[in-house]
């Protein structure tokens, strides 16, 4: 199951991809990580999908990453007596805590935290920003507004507050229950919605107890402002462009995406570009040219992963969507300009022995006829450093820890291989050579680069680099496989 591209593909599961045959077809088409959306489906459905993924993993003998995406607090207005009302530009409209049914002049907004944060001049966005109102007067239980952009407002439409930091926890009561459930289930990543500050991430990390890595979704302007602090306490990042495009001017999103991807690359933490990548494929077997260009742009930026949402979860062509994304990625990475862009954007502070080792591994691979870089890693930190270098040759990450191999399915370029315990560097070289030849990355007359740390099985000890000829396995042919 060797991939012919280095960027990873995350596919969301849902009603359109809910059985063994379809999920396996998605994996074989190119999906590396499966996203379980906790906003849809009860615990029994989530557990069933999780079990199917693990069965496919066992059947195909390839590690598969699983990401559970927590819903986060949902801010919605109340209901209307007539079901909906038309708001005209310039009209007055009031949000309040009164649970009575709304009309053309007011509606309930059952979130007192919003009123506590609002100020005159604040903006409220309704129904994904289709309706925009500005606060003229507010108090602890109301906000009188002027309609700036009108439209139809109906029952329980979402409300966004882009220009204030809301005093809301990123984890609702539902999220806490879901977090405990999926951690016990055995997911590899937790995606945290509605992140506004680093404290939101720290809270989730304390609840997870190390059972899953924490991935922060950047979908609020406040999260963009505090990004460096959020990144420092996160294991990975998702650039969730849907809500970003609602709460920020749409022209701001592309440069923000590029900036966040580069910052993640600099500190060797995986980053996903998500939302509306191939949205037309929900109903069409072919994407638009603009969507293909959007996917390609994220790949040229060097993102670790690109994600499908409704395309694979509820669309009519889930497998075709993954195949399209896979084909675009292969073609982009074949482009000579891709390598030039990746090389010019390489960065990050290098101050450790491990930094020097992986940098040397990449330079050796680029100046000699090396076929693959094999790195031994227990925690995955060295493997991520190798990936930060964005080498032009494949990367084989070897570990004896199944959990590490699954987490690294989200990291650029990783081909994860489970190996038995290794306590000598000679054994590590033999295992690396056998993996490289067995998995189709090298032939007997090729050479590979091997990085490892002595003493073995200790995190953060990478201190050895060796160029090994694949014929070396013949020297130790008496060693057991």
Q: If you had to describe this structure to a student in words, what would you say it looks like?
A:
The protein has 18 helices and 21 strands. The chain is an alpha/beta fold. It folds into three domains: about 10-70 and about 170-335, Phosphoenolpyruvate-binding domains (TIM Barrel), CATH 3.20.20; about 85-160, M1 Pyruvate Kinase, Domain 3, CATH 2.40.33; about 355-475, Pyruvate kinase, C-terminal domain (Pyruvate Kinase, Chain: A, domain 1, 3-Layer(aba) Sandwich). An eight-stranded parallel beta barrel has the order 1-2-3-12-13-14-15-16, surrounded by nine helices. Strand 12, helix 5 (about 200-210) and strand 13 (about 215-220) form a beta-alpha-beta unit.
Short note summarizing the structure:
The chain is of the alpha/beta class and 481 residues long.
């Amino acid at each position: 199951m060797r991939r012919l591209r280095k960027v990873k593909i995350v596919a969301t599961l849902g009603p359109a991809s809910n059985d063994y045959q379809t999920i396996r077809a998605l994996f074989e088409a190119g999906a590396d990580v499966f996203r379980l959306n906790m906003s849809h489906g009860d615990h029994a459905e989530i557990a069933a999908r999780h079990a199917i993924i693990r069965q496919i993993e066992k059947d195909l003998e390839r590690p598969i990453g699983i990401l559970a995406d927590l819903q986060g607090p949902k801010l919605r207005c109340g209901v209307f007596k007539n079901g909906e009302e038309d708001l005209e530009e310039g009209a007055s409209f009031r949000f309040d805590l009164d649970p009575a049914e709304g009309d053309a002049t007011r509606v309930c907004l059952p979130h007192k935290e919003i009123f506590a944060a609002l100020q005159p001049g604040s903006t409220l966005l309704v129904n994904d920003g289709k309706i925009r109102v500005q606060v003229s007067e507010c108090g602890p239980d109301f906000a009188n507004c002027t309609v700036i952009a009108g439209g139809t407002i109906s029952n329980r439409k979402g409300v966004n507050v882009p220009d204030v930091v809301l005093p809301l926890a990123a984890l609702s009561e539902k999220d806490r229950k879901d977090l405990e459930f999926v951690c016990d289930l055995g997911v590899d990543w937790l995606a945290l919605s509605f992140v506004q500050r680093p404290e939101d991430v720290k809270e989730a990390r304390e609840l997870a107890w190390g059972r899953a890595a924490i991935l922060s979704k950047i979908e609020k302007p406040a999260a963009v402002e505090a990004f460096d602090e959020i990144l420092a306490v996160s294991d990975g990042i998702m650039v969730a462009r849907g809500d970003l495009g609602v709460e920020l001017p749409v022209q701001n999103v592309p440069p923000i995406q590029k900036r966040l991807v580069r910052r993640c690359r600099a500190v060797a933490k995986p980053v996903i570009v998500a939302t509306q990548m191939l949205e037309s494929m929900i109903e069409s077997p072919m994407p638009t040219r603009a969507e293909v260009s959007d996917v390609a742009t994220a790949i040229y930026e060097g993102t670790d992963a690109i994600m499908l949402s409704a395309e694979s979860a509820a669309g009519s062509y889930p497998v075709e969507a993954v195949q399209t994304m896979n084909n675009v990625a292969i073609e982009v990475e074949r482009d000579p300009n891709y390598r030039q862009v990746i090389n010019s954007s390489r960065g990050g502070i290098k101050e450790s022995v491990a930094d020097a080792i992986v940098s040397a591994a990449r330079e050796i691979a680029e100046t000699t006829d090396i076929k693959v870089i094999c790195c031994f890693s227990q925690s995955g930190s060295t493997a991520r450093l190798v990936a930060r270098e964005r080498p032009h040759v494949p990367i084989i990450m070897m570990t004896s820890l199944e959990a590490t191999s699954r987490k690294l399915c989200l990291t650029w370029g990783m081909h994860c291989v489970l190996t038995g315990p290794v306590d000598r560097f000679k054994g590590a070289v033999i295992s690396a050579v056998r993996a490289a030849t067995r998995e189709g990355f090298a032939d007997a007359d090729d050479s590979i680069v091997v990085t490892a740390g002595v003493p073995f099985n200790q995190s953060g000890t990478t201190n050895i680099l060796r160029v090994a000829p694949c014929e070396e396995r013949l020297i130790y042919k008496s060693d057991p496989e």
